[in-house]
Specification:
The complex is a heterodimer.
Chain A (H helix, E strand, L loop, with lengths): L2 H14 L1 H39 L3 E6 L9 H5 L8 H7 L5 E16 L2 E10 L3 H4 L4 E4 L13 E4 L1 H8 L8 E4 L2 E9 L4 E2 L2 E2 L4 E4 H8 L6 E6 L5 H15 L6 E5 H44 L1 H9 L4 H37 L9 H28 L2 H6 L2
Parallel strand pairs in A: 3-10, 5-7
Antiparallel strand pairs in A: 1-11, 1-12, 2-3, 2-6, 2-11, 4-7, 5-10, 6-7, 8-9
Helix pairs in contact in A: 1-11, 2-9, 2-11, 2-12, 9-12, 11-12
Chain B lengths: L1 E12 L2 E13 L4 E5 L6 H8 L7 E6 L2 E2 L5 H11 E4 L11 H11 L4 H14 L15 H13 L5 E5 L7 H16 L3 E5 L3 H4 L4 E6 L2 E5 L6
Parallel strand pairs in B: 3-8, 3-9, 6-7, 7-8
Antiparallel strand pairs in B: 1-2, 1-4, 4-5, 9-10
Helix pairs in contact in B: 3-4, 3-5, 5-6
The chains are: A alpha+beta, B alpha/beta.
Chain lengths: 402, 227
């Protein structure tokens, strides 16, 4: 019996029991679709984070005070409370390093903003004009922090879209004096609505010059320093140079942590790939359930078609042929179900992309291939027992029944 | 062609040993017409199953065309069955999903005959058995006589040496039953050995050689040549 005859015979059998066949195909396709949709969400998150980093560009380095003892960096590192401060002078010293285009000191502190008796809690960022291109900031009105000597504590501020609407309502805030902590700042610009960026809600921020922040909130240390290199190829060389400069300024102690774009995004990448794998594995449980369903259906098929199997044996079918026929049925069932599932799953991730355009929810090819492979593999493995039962069937007993 | 020597077949039913066949020896030559009669439970179907290699004897020797077929494994027995033996059953045993022509074709498919060689063979047989107009019908659209004709055509498609027919008219009315029997006898006339199992003495009486079985033994063999 050649392969195409086997496939045709199997197909005819499945077609003979259409209802049951469709249900099994449906069950398998739901399993595969679940794998596709869930992994496309995980992959979407990974690409989203990737894109966020890509928006920053690849030619920057982040310097954080304190030494990360383990890979990544713990809470002490991120909060900036470490033995030695990373000062504005340290940051400005880096500006004299070769291949460095700009240095953007950043501080973050939670404060209060007042205007005419209205008060709101606000995260305040102290930085310089250089932050604008790095964060891809666009202005709704007015202008960003002025380009000036970063040591000057100019009393100006830029506010997020939400702060603007909550504090000023319909009124224009430009030129108004607000109070942040116990100092007065003139509003010179309003940020365009942007939403979450690197875990901060930009719409809720107030930005002031870095030295104003140091003075107002009495901050000795910076939260971080963003160093922009002239070319992307320079980042690792410049990172080494940064360590050297800071070491010489900090009495030979390298008490900073230097992140390059690739080390950051690789870390996130690893986490999100693991997450995608995990949800994919959970979704494949439904494929195991579909496999058990196929086994059940095949066992029923064998007992329903007992006399047919007996007949095939009487007509000269070898046990191996009988086994192959049932395995072919399982392969077709799970294969058709799997492909249907891929189509359903792609449609599902398409819908997700329509609803959340910023989430590039495409199932990774390995997940689709694994979903299909597991479906067919399960179908065949779970049919081994029913197929063996059919192959071993006693033909004379099978034929004596009607 | 067929030579059975001291065949025993015992089944275990509960704690009891049931002797379906006891010390059966039988020789059948090419082209013989043989009827096996006896009451139900006399072992005639078991005998047919053993001749058709659907069942293995508990003891004894079965030679088919000089070859000891009891020694063959399942796969080899399938090949022998496929090439040398055609079955006709009381309940037709057609595959309900397949058309009449496809049912006839089935042994060729199982034997791995390429499609180009299959279709002329099938067409010729379907024509010969007067089924041309019914070739595309499924079994449930055929009359009992037509179904049995399809089954006989299927049994003949591999050009077997022997046809084993187990009550082939048992599920047909008298007239149709006679037609089917005439058809089988005509094939026998062309040289195919016909072994007919029946409990109907009138049908069995038509055979040139008659065997009567009681309690798993051959009680009477009208044409015993040498065993």
């Amino acid at each position: 019996m050649n392969a195409s005859d086997t496939a045709r015979f199997a197909w005819r059998s499945l077609w003979g029991y259409r209802g049951r066949t469709l249900l099994v195909i449906l069950a398998t396709s739901i399993g595969v679709a679940a794998v596709v949709v869930l992994t496309s969400l995980g992959e979407g998150a990974r690409r989203y984070v990737r894109n966020q980093f890509a928006a920053l560009g690849t030619n920057f380095i982040v310097v954080i005070p304190g030494r990360a003892e383990t890979a990544g960096g713990g809470m002490g590192v991120l909060s900036g409370r470490t033995a030695r401060d990373l000062t504005l002078d340290d940051a400005l010293a880096l500006l004299r390093t070769r291949r460095v285009e700009s240095v953007i000191p950043v501080n973050l502190v939670s404060g209060e903003i007042w205007w005419k008796g209205r008060r709101r809690d606000v995260p305040v960022i102290g930085s310089t004009a250089g932050l604008m291109p790095i964060w891809n900031i666009t202005m709704a009105s007015g202008r960003f922090l002025p380009v000036e000597d970063p040591r000057r504590a100019t009393p100006v501020c830029v506010i997020g879209a939400k702060i603007r609407s909550e504090l000023f309502g319909a009124q224009s805030p430009l030129g108004e004096w607000v109070r942040i902590a116990d100092r007065r700042f003139r509003v010179i610009g309003v940020l365009a609505p942007k939403g979450q960026f690197l875990g901060v809600d930009v719409d809720e921020l107030a930005l002031i010059p870095v030295t104003s922040a140091q003075v107002t909130f009495n901050l000795p240390s910076l939260l971080r320093v963003i160093v922009k290199t002239r070319a992307a190829e320079d980042v690792h060389r410049v990172a080494d140079e940064i360590r050297r400069v800071i070491r010489s300024r900090h009495n030979g102690e390298e008490d900073i942590t230097v992140f390059t774009e690739d080390s950051l995004s690789t870390a996130f990448d690893k986490i999100l790939v693991a997450l995608t794998l995990a949800v994919g594995a959970i979704a494949s449980i439904s494929l195991a359930v579909a496999g058990i369903l196929i086994m059940n259906v095949m066992l029923i098929a064998v007992s329903q078609r007992t006399s047919e199997i007996g007949l095939l044996k009487a007509l000269g079918a070898a046990p191996q042929q009988i086994r192959l026929m049932f395995l072919a049925e399982a392969a077709i069932l799970s294969g058709v179900g799997g492909v249907t599932g891929l189509v359903l799953g792609s449609a599902g991730s398409f819908v997700i992309r329509q609803i959340y355009p910023s989430l590039p929810a495409y199932a990774p090819p390995w997940a689709s291939a694994a979903g299909l492979g597991i479906a067919v593999g399960m179908g065949i493995v779970f049919t081994l027992v029913p197929a063996q039962r059919a192959a071993r069937l006693d033909a004379s007993a099978a034929l004596s029944r009607r | 062609m067929i030579r059975l020597t001291s065949i025993d077949r015992t089944f275990t039913v509960g704690d009891e040993q049931v002797h379906a066949l006891r010390d059966v020896s039988l020789a059948i030559e090419h082209g013989e017409y043989l009827s096996v009669m006896g009451p139900s439970g006399s072992g005639k179907s078991t005998l047919l199953n053993i001749i058709g290699l659907l069942d293995r004897p508990s003891a004894g020797l079965y030679e088919l065309d000089g070859e000891n077929v009891t020694a063959l494994d399942d796969r080899q027995q399938s090949a022998v069955r496929r090439n040398k033996i055609g079955f006709v059953f009381q309940f037709f045993h057609l595959v309900p999903r397949l058309t009449a022509a496809e049912n006839v074709e089935l042994p060729l498919v199982l034997a791995g005959v390429p499609p180009s060689e299959r279709s002329p063979l099938v067409q010729r047989l379907v024509g010969e058995f007067g089924l041309t107009r019914r070739a595309r019908h499924r079994p449930d659209q055929l009359s009992g006589g037509e179904r049995q004709r399809v089954a006989i055509a299927r049994a003949m498609v591999m050009q077997p040496a022997a046809i084993l027919a187990d009550e082939p008219t048992g599920n047909l009315d008298q007239t149709t039953g006679k037609e089917v029997l005439h058809l089988l006898e005509e094939l026998n006339g062309r040289g195919v050995a016909l072994i007919l199992v029946t409990h109907d003495a009138a049908l069995g009486g038509r055979a040139r050689r008659q065997i009567r079985m009681v309690d798993g033994s051959i009680q009477l063999d009208s044409g015993a040549t040498r065993a």
